[in-house]
């Protein structure tokens, strides 16, 4: 079982992101479970959503405490909550930022993870460019597919199209595609 | 058809497949997505010949459902928490009048203090109202139980409450097999009421009954609900044949054969418990779990048969009957009454007001039941320090204020937000 925890703020599509990821896994015939950290969500308040992906029925209902991947949609949360809590030693980290890990003072966290398991992607910039809205969730799912290889990018695009039919979906898919390509480029630069 | 779908939407689709004729809707978290979902299906014309009524309160929601049901319509509503309490009088009336209304309860704690999160306090508050109460472990089961509920309600002329863990199930997106209309139609015939209010054939229902007959009326209500102990397995079997997978039932034992310790629980926590059971079985611990589906009627015979050989029975429940302990544990105790060499009963209260029930805490609890058993009700993951301080404060100061606010102040002092 692979467990993902997404941290963001109300209005950034955190919950929808987890749901779309579960749909992408479902499309590939796998079992998936997405759920929010239940609370009185408000725009701007910290929000957490979870996604589990497995090859058999998922029975576990506890919040994800030992994630295989943390997706940080909003680095301003670093000062508010321990977003890395329980992140596995061989886990993945995906941060939405146009800064570097050093600028975010995350070098220590990144160095504890295996090489190539932590990437940054300017998902909000990509969303503003393609979708004209600061909702980085779809772009981050594109980056997630490139980073972990857990789901195919094709499945991610289908899940986005299902959640957002028509032109909004196409714009989100374009953002996801660019994020996917950016992460793949970082990976090939690292291995070259 | 297999779908990756939010629990509430899956339930809405299942309810629509049951062709309700009157739906009374009043919003309350965490149930709201369900009636919204059915409402959208009515508006889109996917559910036809259905009157969707926006009422002004929960009391009206069930009262309108009572009227509709008495007039011969298949009636449905949904609520949660305080909403169920606000309709309490009508809850008892629906059962007393023998009206086969189906209601979803998105299980949520009851205030004060206000809490929107999941536990089973609401269902427990109405456990003696005369409704059948079924608890879903997964969203698949929630779908199946709603279809079963309409058949059961109408066969017995008795209302059925389908209890679904708020947020944990209602807001979870997971894989659910939604049946097609032909499958549901083959299981659920059109509603054929045993009593109808019809102006052409005037009759009254709910007349005053004095001491000369009230006991007999209540006896028959109890007798009638006991019939569900036979009907639930029979109907579940029929559904299983149509859907080609296991459905419903009174309860579901999991790895209980040769188990020295058997856990009993209701609802979504059973999934987490099964994972813990697997982990502990791998370590050689003889442990199993019973997922109780039917809380009312209470399947005494089945529970006795499964639990009797065990040494320890651990009841994990999301409610507290203040002044007594766990209501489910009390009922299990009653089921084991007068049994020779009966297992030792351990009662645990967990997950109140949405506190997550984790594998780690459950594992500690199950070990403790065997190695270091407690008396009375054990509160899982209780913050003993906070409780101790508050007890001390109340002893010292007469005007000690509100417990809820005092505890929150303590927690805020213990965990200040980091600077920034």
Helix percent band of chain A: 25-40%
Order of helices and strands of chain A: EHEEEEHEHHHH
CATH topology annotation of the largest domain in chain B: Rossmann fold
Main beta sheet strand tally, sense and closure of chain A: 6 strands, mixed
Give the neighbour order of strands across the main sheet of chain B: 3-2-4-5-7-6-12
Q: Give the overall form of chain A.
A: globular
Number of strands of chain A: 6
Instruction: Give the termini distance of chain B in whole angstroms.
Output: 50 Å
Oligomer: heterodimer
What is the typical, i.e. mean, pLDDT of chain A? 95
For the largest sheet of chain A, list the strands in their spatial order: 2-3-1-4-5-6
CATH architecture of chain A: 3-Layer(aba) Sandwich
- From the coordinates shown, what is the CATH architecture of the largest domain in chain B? 3-Layer(aba) Sandwich
Please give the radius of gyration of chain B in angstroms.
22 Å
Low-confidence runs of chain B (pLDDT<50, min 5 residues)?
none
Total number of strands of chain B = 15
What does this entry look like structurally?
The complex is a heterodimer of chains A (192) and B (420). Chain A is an alpha/beta fold and 192 residues long. Chain A has a single domain, classed as Pyruvate-ferredoxin oxidoreductase, PFOR, domain III (Pyruvate-ferredoxin Oxidoreductase, domain 3). Chain A has six helices and six strands; from the N terminus they run βαββββαβαααα. Chain A has a six-stranded mixed β-sheet, covered by helices on one side. Chain A is globular, with a radius of gyration of 15 Å. Chain B has a seven-stranded mixed β-sheet with strand order 3-2-4-5-7-6-12, with helices on both faces. In chain B, strands 9-11-10-13-14-15 form a six-stranded mixed β-sheet, with helices on both faces. A two-stranded antiparallel sheet of chain B has the order 1-8. Chain B is globular. In chain B, helix 12 (327-335) links the parallel strand 13 and strand 14. The termini of chain B are far apart. The mean pLDDT of chain B is 96. Chains A and B meet through helix 1 and strand 2 of A and strand 8 and helix 10 of B. Strand 2 (31-36) of chain A pairs antiparallel with strand 8 (173-177) of chain B, so a sheet runs across the interface.
């Amino acid at each position: 079982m692979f467990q993902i925890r997404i941290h963001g703020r109300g209005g950034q599509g955190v919950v929808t992101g987890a749901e779309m990821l579960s749909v992408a896994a479902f499309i590939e015939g796998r079992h998936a479970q997405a759920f929010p950290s239940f609370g009185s969500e408000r725009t701007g308040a910290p929000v957490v959503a979870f996604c589990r992906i497995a090859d058999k029925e998922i029975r576990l209902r506890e919040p994800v405490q030992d994630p295989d991947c943390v997706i940080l949609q909003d680095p301003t949360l670093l000062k508010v909550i321990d977003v890395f809590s329980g992140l596995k030693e061989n886990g993945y980290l995906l941060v939405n930022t146009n800064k570097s890990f050093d600028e975010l003072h995350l070098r220590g966290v990144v160095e504890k993870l295996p090489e190539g398991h932590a990437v940054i992607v300017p998902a909000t910039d990509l969303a503003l460019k393609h979708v004209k809205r600061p909702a980085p969730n779809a772009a981050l799912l594109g980056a997630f597919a490139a980073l972990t290889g857990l789901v195919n990018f094709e499945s991610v695009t289908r899940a986005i199209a299902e959640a957002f039919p028509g032109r909004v979906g196409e714009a989100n898919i374009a953002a996801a595609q660019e994020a996917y390509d950016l992460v793949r480029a970082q990976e090939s630069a690292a291995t070259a | 058809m297999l779908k990756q779908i939010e629990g509430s939407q899956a339930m809405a689709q299942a309810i629509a497949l049951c062709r309700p004729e009157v739906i009374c809707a009043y919003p309350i978290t965490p149930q709201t997505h369900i009636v919204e979902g059915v409402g959208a299906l009515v508006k889109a014309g996917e559910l036809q010949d259905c009157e969707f009524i926006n009422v002004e309160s929960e009391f009206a929601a069930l009262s309108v459902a009572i009227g509709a049901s008495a007039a011969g319509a298949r009636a449905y509503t949904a609520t949660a928490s305080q909403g169920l309490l606000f309709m309490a009088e009508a809850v008892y009336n629906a059962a007393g009048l023998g009206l086969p209304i189906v209601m979803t309860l998105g299980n949520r704690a009851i205030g004060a203090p206000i809490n929107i999160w999941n536990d089973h306090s609401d269902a427990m508050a109405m456990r003696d109202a005369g409704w059948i109460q079924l608890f879903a472990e997964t969203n698949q089961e929630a779908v199946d139980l709603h279809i079963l509920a309409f058949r059961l309600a109408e066969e017995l002329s008795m209302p059925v409450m389908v209890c679904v863990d708020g947020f944990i199930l209602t807001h979870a997106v997971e894989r659910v097999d939604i049946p097609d209309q032909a499958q549901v139609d083959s299981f659920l015939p059109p509603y054929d009421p045993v009593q109808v209010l019809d102006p052409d054939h005037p009759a009254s229902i709910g007349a005053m009954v004095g001491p000369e007959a009230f006991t007999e009326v209540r006896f028959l209500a109890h007798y009638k609900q006991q019939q569900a102990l036979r009907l639930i397995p029979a109907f579940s079997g029929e559904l299983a044949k149509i859907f080609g997978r296991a459905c419903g039932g009174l309860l579901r034992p999991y790895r209980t054969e040769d188990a020295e310790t058997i856990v009993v629980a209701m609802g979504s926590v059973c999934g987490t418990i099964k994972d813990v059971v697997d982990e502990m079985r791998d370590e050689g611990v003889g442990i199993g779990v019973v997922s109780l589906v039917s809380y009312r009627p209470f399947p005494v015979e089945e529970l006795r048969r499964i639990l009797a050989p065990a040494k320890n029975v651990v009841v994990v429940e999301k409610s507290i009957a203040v002044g007594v302990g766990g209501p489910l544990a009390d009922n299990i105790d009653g089921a084991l009454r007068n049994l020779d060499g009966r297992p030792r009963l351990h009662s645990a209260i967990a997950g109140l007001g949405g506190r997550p029930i984790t594998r780690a805490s459950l594992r500690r609890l199950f070990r403790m039941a065997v190695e270091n058993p407690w008396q009375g009700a054990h509160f899982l993951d209780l913050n003993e320090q906070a409780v101790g301080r508050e007890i001390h404060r109340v002893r010292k100061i007469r005007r000690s204020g509100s417990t809820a606010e005092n505890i929150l102040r303590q927690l805020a002092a213990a965990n200040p937000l980091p600077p920034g």
